[in-house]
Specification:
By secondary structure, the chain is α/β, with parallel strands linked by helices. The chain is built from 15 helices and eleven strands. The chain starts with a helix and ends in a 6-residue tail after the last helix.
Length: 427
């Protein structure tokens, strides 16, 4: 694509040269050096320009080509500007376009150095390039400022105001990162979302109306839709811009299969950060919220917040919260457990190994007693990727934790201890 821009700029420069005086070679060389410096900065420090990357770089290449086309020197006389422009071309290109770039560069060099009569090659290469580009996904043609942080191809990058979202692609599957930390992958997302959805449903006799707090990526809602008994799924996002991105960006449609278009899924107004936005009652409330590593998120794990959720549960309703890594953040889930118990909740913890993120845990609470064995009011769906009835004993029983993990306090607004518990380096 960028080679096309370079060639188009050169053609424009040749036309201008016929009508106007040629540009001095010194000016061309200096201008291209400035472009090279700007391009280097743009690639490695260009976060504010993310989303405008492709058009800006195309303009850079067209300007470079136009300058070369207007100049009064040949590649034999002063090769430096040509080498700079070709280096810029290869510097910006995704790997999949290197072959076409090589053809363009060879054609340009051959025509300019050896046989100008072969200029008919340009339209042929132009046609082949367009056909090839059309056969690739748009994300394959983009480069992002965060690419330097990832070994795999970065195919999506967004700023939500609360966090950075990145998506990489490896061996046919997506990896999603939040603030450069792995959030989930296409390979094992089911190991996280199937237990979070179907374990509490096995303990919930009536599950017609469900509330998801957070859940902006849509995968939890998609998993719940496998249960035909569910009539309504309300989603109250913590990061609304994240939800808007997952709803509007095509790459996210492949991940959650257009879940936001489902009739049963309803996105509520407001934010999960304000419990007053929860006005209805529910049979099941699922809190798929970020780890409480700062004051803003820690409010969603306080006694006051849980007290509000308790009032929004129907009789025999169930509440579930993601509770961090089972071993590394053991004091986090023990603090959640203790905070819920202080409100009269009956508590169970379940866990699962999720290779992408860690050995994960969830805390489940209800007003009345939770039985030891699941009554299986709702069976795990047959089209699940992993979870079955036989997996429940493994999910509901975990190994012993260190005695230090039990030394925790209740999380409150005045004493947000969970921030410290959620940071493994500072237990």
């Amino acid at each position: 694509m960028l080679a096309i821009c370079l060639a188009a700029g050169m053609g424009l420069g040749r036309l201008l040269r016929r009508s106007y005086a040629s540009i001095p070679s010194t000016l061309v060389t200096g201008t291209l050096l400035v472009v090279a410096v700007f391009a280097s900065y743009f690639l490695y420090h260009g976060r504010p320009f993310t989303g405008y990357f492709v058009p800006v770089v195309c303009i850079i290449q067209m300007v470079s080509g136009a300058l070369l086309g207007c100049s009064n020197f040949s590649i034999r006389q002063q090769p430096l500007p040509w080498l700079i422009s070709i280096a810029l071309l290869l510097f910006f290109q995704p790997f999949l376009l290197y072959i076409i770039d090589a053809l363009w560069v060879l054609a340009i060099l051959y025509i300019l150095l050896i046989n100008y009569r072969m200029r008919w090659v340009f339209p042929v290469l132009l046609f082949l390039s367009i056909v090839s580009i059309k056969s690739w996904h748009y994300s394959d043609l983009r480069l992002f400022s965060d690419q330097k942080f990832f070994e795999d191809k970065l195919v999506g990058q967004w700023e939500t105001g609360k966090q950075t979202l990145d998506i990489t692609f490896w061996k046919g599957g997506f990896f999603v990162f939040q603030d450069n930390r792995k959030s989930f992958s296409a390979f094992d997302a089911a190991l996280y979302y199937e237990p979070m959805a179907h374990v509490p449903l096995a303990f919930t006799e009536q599950a017609e109306r469900i509330l998801i707090l957070g859940g902006e990526n849509g995968l939890l809602a998609r998993e719940l839709l496998k249960q035909p008994e569910i009539h309504q799924i309300d989603v109250l996002p913590y990061d609304r811009n994240y939800l808007n991105i997952s709803r509007d960006e095509p790459i996210w449609h492949e991940i959650h299969q257009q879940v936001w278009q489902e009739e049963k899924v309803n996105v509520l107004e407001g934010s999960a950060g304000n419990p007053e936005n929860i006005t209805s009652t529910y049979d099941l409330i699922l809190a798929d919220l970020p780890d409480p590593v700062d004051t803003a998120v820690s409010r969603l794990y306080t006694k006051m917040y849980y007290q509000k959720l308790l009032s929004q549960l129907n009789k025999n309703g169930l509440f579930v919260s993601q509770a961090g890594a089972y071993e590394k953040q053991c004091r986090m889930h023990q603090s959640i457990k203790k905070t819920l118990k202080s409100l009269g909740f009956s508590i169970r913890i379940f866990h699962q190994q999720v290779p992408t993120i860690d050995h994960w845990s969830w805390v489940m609470g209800r007003k009345d007693t939770i039985p030891d064995a699941p009554p299986f009011f709702h069976q795990p769906p047959e089209n699940s990727r992993w979870i079955t009835k036989d997996a429940f004993p493994l999910l509901l029983n975990a190994g012993l934790l260190s005695p230090d993990c039990m030394d925790v306090e209740i999380n409150t607004l005045k004493n947000p201890v969970i921030i410290r518990y959620a940071t493994p380096a500072n237990p």
